[in-house]
Amino acid sequence: MADFQPINTQEEFDAAIASRLSREREKAVRPYADYDQIKNDLGTAQTTLAERDATIADLTSQLQSTRTDLAKTRIALQKELPAELAERLHGETEEELRQDADSLLKLFGSRKVSEPARSTEKERTGGKTGKFSTDSLRSVLDEMNLGGT
C-alpha cells in the first residue's frame, strides 16, 4: 500500500477510472453492435412480406374470379342457357347464380341448338348406296338454287 496516492482533483479521478469506464461502455454497447444490420434486415423482410401479401391477395382474387366463372358456366350448362347469357349471370354464391339463371330463363327461354333436319343420301339416291348419281347431284344443286346444268 505504499503506492497509494490520494486523488485530489476531478482530472486525476477521471484519469484513474477512464480505462474502467471504457471497458463498461464496451460491454454495454457490444450486444447492440449489429443493430444497423438487424434494422436493415428487418426492413428487407418487411418489404418482402408486403410484396408476398400483395401477390397472395392478387392470386386469391384471380382464384375467386376463376371459381365464379366456372360456377357460371356450370350453372348455365345445367340450366341450358345460351353461352352468351352465362357471362351475364350475377351473384356471389351458387344459389344466387342459380336464381339469376332461372330469372334469365324466364325472360329469354332456353335456346337449345338442335341439328337441322337433313335428307339422307339414301333418299337422294333412291336407296342406292355408293357413288352419287347425276340426278342426285342435280337435285342438290337445284336445292342450292344454283341451277343444275
Give me some keywords for this one.
single chain; 149 residues; mainly alpha; 6 helices; rod-shaped
How do the helices and strands follow one another from N- to C-terminus?
HHHHHH
Shape: rod-shaped
Terminal residue distance: 142 Å
**Quaternary organisation:** single chain
What structural class do the secondary elements suggest? mainly alpha
The DSSP helix count reads: 6
Strand content: under 5%
Mean pLDDT: 81
Helical content stands at 55-70%
Total beta-strand segments: 0
Largest sheet: none
Q: What's the alpha carbon Rg, rounded to whole Å?
A: 45 Å
Query: Could you list the spans in which at least 5 consecutive residues all have pLDDT below 50?
Result: 113-117
Secondary-structure blueprint:
Elements: H1 10-29, H2 35-79, H3 83-86, H4 94-108, H5 121-124, H6 134-143
Helix pairs in contact: 2-4
Molecular structure report:
The protein has helices at residues 10-29, 35-79, 83-86, 94-108, 121-124, 134-143. It is 66% helix and 0% strand. It has a domain at 12-108. Residues 113-117 have low confidence and may be disordered. The protein is mostly helical and 149 residues long.
